[in-house]
Each structure stands twice: as C-alpha cells, then as structure tokens.
Amino acid sequence: MLAFLLAALTLCACAAKPAPGPQPETQTLPPERPPAPVSETEPAPIPEPEPQQGPPDPRKLPWEVSAPMAADATEPDPGSTLLTWDPARAEAYPADVYCGELALLEKWMAVEGLTEAGLAVRGCTQLILVAAQPYDPADEQAEAFHAVAVCYETDGDGRWRTALPGRMEGFVGRRGIHHDRAQGDRTSPAGLWALGLAFGNEPMPPGLLLPWRDITPQSEWVSDNDSLYYNPWQERDDPSLAEGWDEAEHLADYKDYALACVIRFNMYPYTVRNRGNAIFLHCSEGATAGCVGLSREDMETVLL
C-alpha cells in the first residue's frame, strides 16, 4: 500500500506541471566528465556482530521444556515478598475476610510492602488476591484453609477495581499461608506469583488465552529432591531425559486437575530444593497440600 500511494503522488505532480512556453536559446555546455569505471568485483559483505549470549528469559521459556538443575538457585525469586513483608503491619492489618474488596487489597499491599507503582513496574494489571485466617498451631480444630479469593484489574487510568467474578470462596493449605514455606509443611506460599501454563484432564475451555497443555497418561510433576528435574512437568517416556526420578505426581490421577494453572512459585530458574513443588491454582472443595483451590465453576471463569 505504501508503494502505491507514493506512485499516485508522483503522477499527480507530473499532471500539475504548466504547459511549455517559448524555448530559450540553446547554450553550449562543457562536456561532462566520463563516469568512473565500475569494478566488476563485489565488495566483501560486512560481517554481522556475534549475538550476545545472556541468561534465558523465564517468561519466554516453553513450559514443555525443563532445564536440569545443576544446583539450587542463588538469586531471589522475584515473586517472593519475604524481604518486604512487615510482620508488625500484619498484626495491625489482619486478614479480615469480611472487609470490602478494595479495603482488602489495600491491607494486603500494606502488609506485603507493595505499592501501585511497584505493581505497574512489574507489568501487573490483573490480580487474584487470596486471603486466609491465620493458623493457630495450639488449636487442633483450627481451619486456616478457608480463604477468600478476589479478582482485580486496572482501569484505563491504572487504578485498581474488582473484576468478574469478584469475591469467591477459596481454599489453601491446611496450615494457611506462609512466606517461608518448605516442602510438605501444608502451607501455601505468600507472595506475588505469576500464573503460567494452564492444563487439565478435561478439554481446553473454548476461548482460553493462556498457554494450554493436555494431561497424558505419561504426564508427571517431579517432586524428587534428588532428581535433576525437581519441580517441572515431565513426560516419563521422553527419550531426551538424562535420568529418572523416584517421586512425582501422576497428573492424570487427580480429579482436582480437571482444570488447573501453574502458580510460578519456586520455578526455573529460581528453583531451590525442599522449598516446595507442584503449586497450582486448581479445582477444589477443601484444604489443599499447598495449592490454591476454587470451585470448578469459578476456576473456569478465572481462566477465561
């Protein structure tokens, strides 16, 4: 289209030239210099600079691929709020599941040491905030796994507001939410975690925009701390695997994974052994082992 427009403008300019008038007397011009000889040898091409090799961007890594772990990660996970979390503010602003949605968001940001500007720098425009009552280890009947989950989004001016489906009933680990969780402690990780791959034992919901993967009979999520492949999805029959593992979740066995989504906690390249694995957002009707659970209906609404 651009070439066509340029040609049309050129034709219009030619048509607008005035008609020729009387011709001036012919003047003798000095002979032009002969053109410089043209070399038949083509110039050597300028070599392109060598591409600079840098660390892989974890946001662009295919979810089907997992790099083997040489050692535990030394850099802090960007989703962790352990260093900005303020225990004193947590006492002053308890997780009140009965307050309004925007008040709950303000409390959470104050306790976690987060600001609207900080969320904007991270490119965060949507949130699912999950709040649970504190766990009391002295109370054997304590049920800290009941949670409130609220969806938020930013408007055209960057201000936060509630989004559909709004407030939902949710579930977390039986011992609530913890900033410095360990594998097997039955807590869900506190922080600001990105959502990644959506997957399930059911067909992909129509209209889903997240990356999706079907669970197969060979699909496993490795939980073996002694394996090179700690905390990723693997297909057991993959011929490229360098070794196996002794512990893993066989994903097809879990009805809660009818619809699910990866919560990017302790994921490559920030993986640390024994910190926890297989932390998902999935369908649930009760306490989890550390994941976040929603009803089947709410789960589909959130994914879409």
What would your notes on this structure say?
The chain has 304 residues and is an alpha+beta fold. 15% of the residues lie in helices and 20% in strands. It has an eight-stranded mixed β-sheet with strand order 1-2-3-13-12-11-6-7, sandwiched between helices. It has a three-stranded antiparallel β-sheet with strand order 9-8-10, with no helix packed on it. Strands 4-5 form a two-stranded parallel sheet. It starts with a helix and ends with a helix. The relative contact order is 0.14. Residues 1-24 and 55-59 have low confidence and may be disordered.
Architecture blueprint of SSEs:
Layout: H1 2-15, H2 87-92, H3 101-112, H4 116-121, E1 126-132, E2 146-154, E3 160-171, E4 177-178, E5 188-189, E6 195-200, E7 212-214, E8 219-222, E9 233-235, E10 248-250, E11 260-263, E12 280-283, E13 292-294, H5 296-303
Parallel strand pairs: 4-5, 6-7, 12-13
Antiparallel strand pairs: 1-2, 2-3, 3-13, 6-11, 8-9, 8-10, 11-12
